Automatic annotation (TrEMBL):
Class II aldolase/adducin N-terminal domain location: 9-187
Name this polypeptide is given: Class II aldolase/adducin family protein
Gene3D superfamilies: Class II aldolase/adducin N-terminal domain (3.40.225.10)
Organism: Blautia intestinihominis
InterPro entries reported in the protein's UniProt record: Aldolase_class_II_sugar_metab, Aldolase_II/adducin_N, Aldolase_II/adducin_N_sf
SMART domains the UniProt entry points to: Aldolase_II
UniProt entry keywords in alphabetical sequence: Lyase, Metal-binding
Presence of keyword tRNA processing: no
Amino acid sequence: MVNEFEIKKQICDIGRRIYNRNMVAANDGNISVKLNDNEFLCTPTGVSKGFMTPEFICKVDAQGNVIQANPGFKPSSEIKMHMRVYQKRPDVGSVVHAHPIYATSFAIAGIPLTQPIMPEAVIALGCVPIAEYGTPSTMEIPDNLEKYLPYFDAVLLENHGALTWSTDLNAAYMKMESVEFYAQLLYQSKLLGGPKEFDKENIKKLYEIRRKFGMPGKHPANLCQNKDGVNCHNCGGACHNEEYKQFPGYQYDFVGGAAPAAETTTAAPAANADAELVANITKQVMAQLGLK
Ligand SMILES: [Zn+2]
């Protein structure tokens, strides 16, 4: 395991990236990393995340209470929303919160990122829903966030910003970059007359890539492929739960109600170009996600 001081340095590095990429203004944003079930490192409140050094970083327990903080530093006031993610998602090792311009604009306009417009966004994120507005630093944000946690790895926070989480710090940060890039593309293509969306068949192919590579995290592609809930190997039975059917991305997997074939059949010559394209895209996406 990487030592604690190294992780503190990594948090400072990611803080600088977030600040330098205009994903936060002034002292906004916060980052946390799980050390073990009862120890978490997090950024302090009231400092710019672009100018932190390791001694700024605080340590809290699973409830967000301070274990260690140097004089003058207090854990982020938003630590509660981070702790809710760790509590509900034991697979998560890091949480990143920022206010990137485009993603936050969508969060303010009340438009979730659900339009399937590019392969990487569909594979890496699926859809990014909006968690209902809550007053910062109260329990409203964690409470409103909770229902999205079992199904997604990124949400917009209504009239506020974005929150991403993943297995480790780098992956959680990369997810934030992906969300912002997706939001920016969506915004720009709307200016150009509206994006041309993938059809359901193409979305299914991209979801299939994600499943095939067993990519970590939660995503609409991980929802049960069996509409009738016969073999709930993907959702652990969640397909019986009406709640999850309301989430964006769900509908793409159920074209005509048929479950996708278990084995991919040999591609016909006409489909080869498609297959090659998807393979190339997948390679790039996997590299971007640091999976290979
Ligand atoms: Zn915020």
